[in-house]
Write a structure and sequence with these properties.
Radius of gyration: 24 Å
Helix content: 25-40%
Distance between the termini: 64 Å
CATH topology of the largest domain: c-terminal autoproteolytic domain of nucleoporin nup98
Strand order of the largest sheet: 2-3-4-1-5-7-6
Bound molecules: S-adenosyl-L-homocysteine
CATH class of the largest domain: Alpha Beta
Structural class: alpha/beta
Number of domains: 2
């Protein structure tokens, strides 16, 4: 089975850098179920194609049909696996293109970060639901999709089509996004029955889905198929997606993964049909919510975090607020809806996040929207002192510190507490002790692929105490979300004031 990736960007052979595979060589990679080969059918200045050819050995596959084999259920000696791109191809992609899929390219960092013209072809893709299904999953991601059914036998057109399509995706995408999308959606389209799911499948899905899955209109269906309909895993994954920074508002309104104990669980999921699943799985009703929220409606962790930050700012009488690492601007929009806050600004190092924030807040159309209270929205890095960070009553770093490489954290402390030095600083970060409460989360895993660390409560207190002492602040700690007697609340918040 074959996967080809073509680009027509100027300097096309640079695709080799981005894939970390030299265009001049044929390389082979042993897999537990066969051999993967990478080679370049063409590598001209204006056009370069990389091919991943997977040679499945049915005997090896049958022998290794154990926990390490992604296609556990298909261990028969005779099946379509050697000829069709399925979860085996996805598994080989993850193995062969690991670094490219992480979006890393030290030799050409801008290449990894930039959308490039791509054409991806899978000549034989098992596609349950037919061409329309392929379009439904890939088009919302910005691909032009051609899915042509493969006839059962070209000699006998009256036999009709097989369940395979030739899939061609054309579009401009970051290479890492493209690879991750194909990686997730191959087994989703195949929708073969798996009887065994590795405990880290949820983590894998969250990592590969970063930046695109949480906002995908079919995210619930994709998640269900990817996780072979395992309800607890699906619920955990949908919860984590809704809680991720990529999630659109509507996903945030219906999902909560923080009340896992069935007795106190409200069945939440992103979509109405998933709601029905969860409800039947638990037999729970919304009135059983024992969560520490003011109203009976299900409230997401992200929502509770936003409320907690606003409450802390109010208590400190901080009306002029800058949101540092504002992401897609969810907190900014919340601040704008509350007239208590008179001046609001946001900064983020990521242009992509800022773009999303600008769209959410309609910044381009009306920079002075909301009676001019949103005064600034700009690109900036917290590791460099910036006068635009100065002059506010409060700075918020909501779920930001854990994205900073530990060796750079000292710089962030100096910039925020030493240089910008507002009267109030509010910091929220995950409480890693709480992770054991997330079903399907592997021990030691982190909640988001980009987290560089996650602190226990003791570690956060230690950090906060040291930073406060160094810069003349007092700090108080507030748990956010249900405060589990054993492992604490899912989010921890430090409110620094001086
Ligand atoms: N505060 C938002 C987003 C959290 S995600 C929310 O709670 O929804 C973390 C954000 O921090 C990302 O948008 C990331 O781009 C930003 N970030 C990470 N490191 C940064 C740095 N050094 N300077 C500025 N922003 C940074």
């Amino acid at each position: 089975m074959l996967l080809t990736i073509k680009t027509t960007m100027p300097g096309a052979p640079d695709l080799g850098y981005a894939l970390h595979k030299h265009p001049g060589r044929v390389q082979r990679f042993d897999q537990s179920f066969g051999t993967a080969h990478v080679f370049y059918p063409d590598a001209d200045e204006d056009r370069c194609t990389a091919a991943l050819l997977l040679d499945v050995d049915p005997v090896k596959l049958a022998r290794t049909r154990s926990r390490s084999t992604p296609d556990f259920s298909l261990g028969q000696y005779v099946n379509d696996r050697p000829y069709a791109a399925s979860s085996l191809m996805a598994s080989a992609m993850a193995n062969v293109f690991r670094t490219a899929m992480r979006g890393r390219c030290d030799a050409r960092p801008e290449l990894a970060a930039t959308p490039i013209p791509l054409e991806i072809v899978l000549p034989a893709l098992p596609c349950r639901g037919g061409p329309a299904q392929a379009a439904r999953f890939f088009e919302p991601l910005g691909w032009e999709v051609s899915a042509v059914p493969v006839p059962l036998d070209p000699e006998f057109p009256e036999w009709g089509d097989s369940r395979y399509v030739t899939l061609t995706l054309t579009g401009r995408q970051r290479l890492a996004d493209a690879l991750n999308q194909v990686y997730v959606l191959l087994p989703v389209l195949d929708d073969a029955k798996h009887y065994w799911m590795a405990p880290d499948e949820v983590d894998k899905l969250i990592r590969a889905g970063e930046g695109w899955l949480a906002a995908h209109p079919a995210r619930a269906d994709i998640t269900r198929r990817y996780l072979a309909n395992r309800r607890t895993l699906v619920r955990a994954a949908l919860g984590r997606l809704a809680d991720s920074e990529d999630a659109p508002e509507d996903a945030l309104d219906h999902t909560d993964i923080d009340e896992e104990q069935p007795a106190a669980t409200v069945p939440h999921a992103t979509d109405a049909d998933a709601d029905a699943d969860a409800a039947s799985a638990h037999g729970a009703t919304a009135t059983e919510d024992a969560g520490a929220t003011e109203d009976a409606a299900p409230v997401t962790l992200a929502e509770r975090r936003g409320r907690a930050v606003l409450e802390a700012l109010r208590e400190e009488d901080a009306r002029r607020v800058i949101d540092l690492g504002c992401g897609s601007g969810k907190l900014l929009s919340r601040l704008l809806q509350d007239a208590f806050f008179t001046e609001i600004a946001g900064a983020d190092v990521s242009y992509r996040a800022l773009g999303a924030a600008k769209r959410r807040l309609k910044w381009e159309q009306s920079p002075n929207a909301s009676s001019g209270r949103l005064t600034d929205l700009f690109q900036g890095a917290l590791t460099y002192a910036d006068e635009r960070f100065r002059g506010y009553d409060a700075a918020v770093l909501m779920e930001v510190v854990e994205h900073v490489d530990p060796p750079r954290l000292g710089a962030v402390e100096q910039v925020v507490f030493g240089d910008a030095a507002p009267r109030v600083v509010v910091v929220t970060t995950p409480n890693s002790e709480h992770n054991v409460r997330y079903e399907g989360m592997a021990p030691g895993a982190m909640r988001h692929a980009d987290h560089r660390f996650e602190w226990t409560r003791a570690q956060f207190r230690e950090w906060a105490g040291r930073v406060a002492a160094a810069h003349g602040y007092q700090v108080r700690h507030v748990p956010v979300g249900d405060d589990d007697p054993e492992v604490g609340a899912p989010t921890q918040m430090g409110v620094f004031s001086r």
